[in-house]
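Researcher: Next sequence.
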Amino acid sequence: MNLFTITAPGPGGGRGILIPLRKKTLAIAWTFVVCFLNVSEVAAQRPMEFLDRGLIALEKSDGVYLSWRMLGTDPDSIGFNLYRNGEKINTEPITESTNYEDSEGTVEDVYKVETLHSGGPEQSGEVEVWSLKPAYRNPGRPSLPHKKIPLPAPPVVDTISYIPGDMSVGDLDGDGKYELVFEWEPDGVSINSFLEAIDLEGNSLWRIECGPNTTKNKLNIMVYDLDMDGKAEVALKTGPGTKDGTGTYLSTGPAGSDDDSYIIPRPSGRMMGGPTYLTVFNGASGAEMATVDYFPQIGDSNDWGDDYGHRASSLKTAVLYDQALGPILVSTRGIYEKIAMGAYTWDGMNLNQVWTFDTNDPGNEDYAGQGNHSVGVGDVDGDGSDELMYGAMAIDNDGTGLYTTGRGHGDSHHLTDHMPDRPGLEYFQGHENDTYGISMRDAGTGEIIWEVLSSSDVGRAWAADADPGYRGSEVVAIGFPNYDAQGNEIPTNYNAYNQPVYFDGDVQRERRGGANVNGDSRIFTGWYYGASTIHGSKNDANLVADILGDWREEIILRNGNNEELLVFSTWIPTERKNPTLMHDPLYRMNIVVQSIGYNQPAHTGYYFADGYPEHDIYMVGVKDCNGVVDGTAYMDECGTCVGGDTGLQPCMTLTMESEASCYKSAMFDDRFEGYSDQGYLIMDKKTNGKIASSINTSMSQEVEVTIRYANGSGQYLSSDLIMNNSTRQLSYTPAASWEDWQELHLTLTLEEGENILEIKKMDGLGRANIDFIQITGVDLEATDCKKIKLAEAEEDFVVYPNPATDYFSIKGFKSYHYIIYDLNQNIHEDGEGNQNSKLGEQLSPGEYLITLEVEGENYSRRIRKE
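Model: Next structure:
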């Protein structure tokens, strides 16, 4: 039997860390055998970025809509509270969703969300409400809540005007909030782009001058935490004349000895030479950290498919995750003929090349000409590491060719679980080459599942689950009917120029066309509110990603005057509780490459309508409650930050069952249900019941005390509680039944060393049953009964010798009635005595309780026979 129980939360009770989610079983087809492989059994836990709750509040005509993140490391049961102006607005914890409608909220209010961790609650910072803004381009339309981010003044270079263009996102400073990194694209010319980082309030962190030897829309911006230190780096293609975010010319690697005034010849308008660099910048400051020669360099333009530099300038970058090496930065060149690429790890100081791939190398010839105008990333073979989906081919994480379909170049691609009843992921592609049309293939093996041939260039196509009437994705391509995931024609008439987006409350995707979003009907028209797209006829958004609120995606568009960014986030309630899409590895990696080449939407690595699967992930860059990145301090159950570098110990709860008290002169009983452990003690005035315990601690401290009792007497009762000779009165409220257990809560002060806690002198006509006493504090120990020293041990009477080997005598009363009990309340002697009586001569060795009745008063002592 455990007489004392100590409970203390560990670091996992805090916001962080190492909580696996549900698992999805993938199937890998081997020769003659189909072997189902549980990915998490072969893959180590995957690191993902730390994010805060991303709370947003949107004004509506009937209140305020609130939305916040569930993290990929949260348990399904995670609960939340919401506060308006410091006052909680929900009556019960919110556990079924991560959104809420506050009918009493106004645009003047501020809100915060409280996460109910097992180790204690954690509150976010306060956020203001996004106000309803009028449709100034069409005043008859309703106002819409959205956020306007003021942009820094654009660059000034001669008479060039600039527009905010391609954008990526990452946590640059490690605070759990996203910053935006975007290109200032020169209008009408192809050189002198700039790269700027801003926070979500429009404050500039830095600006990089890319220089005359880079090309707009081809900077290949990578924003990702390449060394897993909790802060994202920024990598991009650079050249002579590039200045970092501190205003300094690049100065490391080959840039340290170049001529920054040199301009690479562009006889056809495209660069026909080098050098071209790949540079990693500090995400927080924009400072150059390392520069290497871009692999591959251009060499002979004819190798890439033409003699004027067009196909040779098809450069792309990506980030893959390798479970042995961590993040890998990949640089590529070529689509139509020769294709080559190199891969690098980043150790915080150096770019280290780990592999190269070249279609001119023996064995790689069939991969030539298979590239896309975009790239995709994902673990398609189930080994825990990402592959590079490069059009009609796939490159394994080690730089070897995984497969090629031979279907050739294309513009669009979509990687996800298009066919949920089929194992693994599928890859949909629209092809440019004559004959091949559109194809759906097994992403891991390259097997063509179905295809529709065509002699036309398929310039627009997408595949996503947009219709609940069909299981899996719907496939839409220009010049083709719509198809279901199996390749069957369906009667829908979706527009091939749209792109899928999660925006309303159902589990299907909506369709973004330019600055507009459609579901079953038009949800909103961004143009009314000043929104404009980029990339001409492609009508791209600057960014579409789940960067705030719950799992729905935000759409970021430039204002037509190029002075603001407009952020549109959903105001539509949903019952779907889902972790942020940014903690789904496949989705996150395809946000990294969204703007590379032709912008493509990111998809999840699972069929969303079936619920979210488990990924073995953990967050890096998590600040503990003491503010230390990746620290081990945590909030204990008392709401104190302990452990790690705090120097503080966690609080604990010491439970002392009444029947196991070091001293007790009350009757044991177990007739009434609901008690803990073995039973309880009956305290009443008649028997002068008493309970005492000894608690040892290494420090003086205030502790929380809980006394669990039952009072079915129908009367209010009281008793004394004595702690270290300080007395206070306890009051026991009557209940309907002896099985209705209640709790008293109070705060007491412990002194360093041994502390004596007593409950005695029950007053009233009834009795109370005491179940246990709990004390919550730091470094508590219930000491051995031998150490206890009752304050009244020398009062009233003395039992001597105690312990005794023969008999006991009583000093203090001339005559008395006595009873000797064992600790199970069995009577061993019952009789009359005086100062000369020899008591307990027949007792066996052990612990006993002797009770004396003198003139109607009862007195008890604990005795030992040896």
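Model: The two ends are 24 Å apart (CA to CA). The domain at 798-865 is CATH 2.60.40.3080 (Immunoglobulin-like).
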